[in-house]
């Protein structure tokens, strides 16, 4: 017996049922609590960051993290970054925070820059992809900020795209596969767009830019030279 395929209408209806329109400046506490409940239950939430939409899951839940990889069709050889509520939370995740890293955090967080540290053994190996390093950021978007403050620990901060494809600043631009596989969608309307956060490896003595983004090399070097 053949399985009846879902029509585009059925798919759109399913997406609408799990979508919540959220005010990006003043997020509804009710919607935030619904999202937190999904995350703490092992689910995946599509949510807004400063530039692009992302996928949030409990970073300490192996099953939830694995779902992120599968939803994105992402190789397990590629690490995932996480979002935290404050610098104090980082202490229980990384081996060392250098003076250079502290200067960068104080200058550019929240948002704009992701820092890569040497991870402590408590961090899931799936997040580090065997590199022994973890990317961390304090989010600048109010919705993302509320989520990390209400959950019991770090959440994933990866972009909501099929691996290798561009990130999306609008819900309508996100791959239908991702829309169909997440558990909840927080629609904050069009986002800023752009290339996302700058990624800097601070695991060694000299910080190294791994990916260019919102913070230019000149801005970064200015901070480090005036430390």
Explain what this protein looks like in three dimensions:
By secondary structure, the protein is an alpha/beta fold. The chain has a single domain (15-225), classed as DHBP synthase (Alpha-Beta Complex), CATH 3.90.870. It contains nine helices and eleven strands. It has helices at residues 8-17, 29-40, 62-72, 87-90, 99-108, 125-128, 142-150, 176-181, 217-225; strands spanning 19-21, 45-48, 53-56, 82-83, 113-118, 133-137, 155-156, 158-159, 184-187, 198-201, 208-211. Helix 2 (29-40) packs across helix 7 (142-150). The longest helix is centred in the N-terminal third of the chain and has 12 residues, at 29-40. It is globular, with a radius of gyration of 18 Å.
Distance between the termini: 69 Å
Shape descriptor: globular
CATH superfamily: DHBP synthase
Number of domains: 1
Beta percentage is: 15-25%
Give the CATH topology.
DHBP synthase
Counting DSSP H or I runs of 4 or more residues, the number of helices is: 9
Total number of beta strands:
11
The largest sheet, given as strand count, sense and whether it forms a barrel, is: 6 strands, mixed
Task: Record the strand order, biggest sheet.
Answer: 7-4-6-5-10-11
Q: Are there runs of 5+ residues with pLDDT below 50, and where? A: 1-8
The average pLDDT score comes to: 92
